[in-house]
Amino acid sequence: MTISFNLNDLEELTLKTKQIQENVLEEILTLNANTEYLRQFLHGSTDKELFKKNVPVVSYDDVKPYIERVANGEPSDVISGKPITRFFLSSGTSGGKPKIFPVNNKFYEDMSFIFAQSSSIISTHIKSVQQGKSMTFNFVRAQSSTLSGLPVSTGTTSFLSSECFKNRPSNVFTSPDEVTLCQDNKQAMYCHLLCGLVQRDEVVSVAAPFASTLVNAITFLENYWKEMCSNIRSGHVSDWITDLSCRDAVTNILGGGHSELADLVEEECNQKSWKGIIARLWPKAKFVQSIITGQNAQYIPMLEFYSNKLPLTSPLYASSETLFGVNVNPLCKPHDVSYTFLPNFSYFEFLLADEGNKGEIVDLVDVKIGSYYEPLITNYFGLHRYRMGDILQVTGFYNSAPQFRFVSRKNTVLSISLEATTEEDILKALNHATLILEHSDMLLMGFTSYADISTHPGHYVFYWELKAKNNNDTVKLDNKVLVECCCVIEESLNAIYRQLRSKDGYIGALEIRVVQQGTFNSLMEIFISRGASASQYKTPMCVNTSEALEVLESNVLARFFSDRSPPF
Ligand code: AMP
């Protein structure tokens, strides 16, 4: 039994949620009953009740050995009835290493399906968007491979490199595929913007998978608009665009020099304030689209500033493990975004995460409005009752399909781009840095951290309160030691942080801001005055309230930056 749907099936999918979920589970169990993984719990049975009774709820480290066996060349049926053809590299980490998830082409079909759903939802809410183009900042990264030769890359890279994307039914992008597929992200960014500017009159939306990328694009434009205008004026693409297929495709779109257009762009970019720059440069843009929930909510004010409050739509909720659902109300306020789960991607269960009432597991249709849950995924590729690590809150129902607000990624405390840095990562990095301090005269008395996105690219800030080891001495801030501490912290952070920082330049140099003695006491007083328990007070590992930041900032004595990129 294969479940297939047409594009206008949102109604059907959400009306028959329960039945479709039952069918999905049945199909997965039939496919996977004889895998080594399921056999140990179900002995070949496909009984759904037995599945719920016997198959354990697991985390990545539990299934990692099975996934790695397939990655190392054992047959797919260790975990999956259907062949595994590639692995998705997730932004989550396990023991500091990126997680990989097994998939096959079905995932691409699901991706095409969810993109089509979300664009058909948009076109019912915003008039005539189908008559224009989208300036979409899509990027690919280099793919690697497992020991057995199967490709490993992020879900986005895989999809963009797939036949499914290449043969998409309609092309709405201002960028040719040669730009999207250019592995040098700086060249790709330049060309995306150049193509967008040249076709400015056709652009009806400006989009990127995540809001952080859109903010990066604007910053990039700030640095390169003069060069782009000169390219537009002359019809000649800058010589540093050396990826030949990309260069040819962009030259083609440029189609000779356009001095009037160059003047127009120059005039807008030359204005003192860049408020509303998106709406000014792309006057026919009707909306800006990217994920603006979770870690990306921090970019909402910037996007509102740059877009002059064009509608900001957050289309969908997805991960390397599975796709979840779409935002059926794309014009809602950014802080009200919820995602309606679609029942055809995976079998979803929900682990109750309400304080004091954790542990109960319910089906998709049985979640309760207002409650918090962690989704458990049973997908077609070998994950069974897998804990996602995201926390969601039920906000309502669309027909019988529940809608969820993204609350947080469990354990993530710092994030600038796609990386998820946990308390554990921070502590590990700090331990390494304190080893350096041991050989100095300085003692670390207090620390907290902050993801500073007011700089471009954003960067991590560690606030440190230092004291001289000799009680009566005043602390001497040793530049060499503190810069080394910055470097060591970066080197200890997880692989995704290091890649975004070193190779891709999406994260700036890590900074230590040394604060005056007594600052952390003042910080504690603030938290206690707001209800924290005095006897159990712990300095938060990271801060983000403006009140706490003000206290820290008003006490900064000196700043130190890492002076080399961490290896990855
Ligand atoms: P990855 O596996 O690297 O694609 O990352 C998936 C994770 O990104 C999810 O588990 C979420 O934590 C986050 N994510 C994906 N979509 C959204 C969204 N719409 N809102 C908030 N966070 C999201």
TrEMBL record:
Residues 339-409 form the GH3 middle domain. Keywords: Ligase. Residues 424-546 form the GH3 C-terminal domain. It comes from the Eukaryota. One of its GO terms (molecular function) is acid-amino acid ligase activity. InterPro entries: GH3, GH3_C, GH3_M. One of its GO terms (cellular component) is cytoplasm. The keyword Membrane does not apply. Belongs to the IAA-amido conjugating enzyme family. This is Auxin-responsive GH3 family protein. The lineage of its organism: Eukaryota, Viridiplantae, Streptophyta, Embryophyta, Tracheophyta.
